[in-house]
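Q: Here's a chain of 292 amino acids. Please give me its 3D structure as tokens.
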Amino acid sequence: MRLIMSALAAAMLLVVALPSEAQQTDTAGSKDPKLLTRMPGFYISEYTDSQFDAHEFVVQTPKALGKQHAEGHLTYWRYDITTAAAALPPSWLQTARNYQNAVERLGGKKMYDAGLGNNYDSTFLISRNGTDTWIELHPRGGSSASGMYTLLIVEVQKMQQDVGANADALKGGLADSGHVEVPGIFFDTAKSDIKPESGPAIDEIAKLLTNNPALKVGIVGHTDMAGDATGNMRLSQTRAQSVIADLVSRHGIAAARLVAFGAGPWSPVASNKTDDGRARNRRVELVEITTK
């Protein structure tokens, strides 16, 4: 009887705390996750959609709790229960298990479960169609009832590079240290074909060379340490050659002013132990060629 009274009291508190029914509609511009529906009787009270951001997800390792850093498209939802559903709110466990079952039906798995003492906070991972989707769930509410819960989801993806090379900045880098990185040149994994979005960065190299007709440069390709080192040496060389071919064919830069060199993984600027470090090591640089 005491448990029944506690549950009724929790439900009454939820009803008292709820906004008016007129306010119980989804936040303007919000929508549910692509892969998951919401719990019945809930509406979206808060919604944030970030094109690129990062989050640390709690994960259970064999020895202890750990953190998984994920970067990509980040979306946050807060779901609140409606007045009509508040008389019989779902338990924390009911909310957590509903999402766990939905994730598992999609081929995903549970990476962390905090248990009853921590509201069954959970982390899930769905890997499908070559994309990892990390999900963080926090059931909340009075007693063990879930009057609201939050979801935070990161669809792992690379950031779209919006800031590219600038001819004046490239010239300054060469003057300061004799070499400079060219941001904004992209290749598909294990390939040397230049991706279309690399055009603006290569245009700036061409502008640098056109404005400085006596300048000769080495185009140096760099890779991370993933895979075979010998293969990475060849890949970095062919990528450098691809940049030169584009400068010659599209911009009319004399091939005699350009030298391709593949440094492979042997000149890192960051640790190869992390995704961020490996991404920084995959780059193209200019090196000024001078005999004086």
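Q: Can you summarize the key feature?
A: Helices lie at 2-17, 92-105, 167-177, 199-211, 229-251, 275-281.
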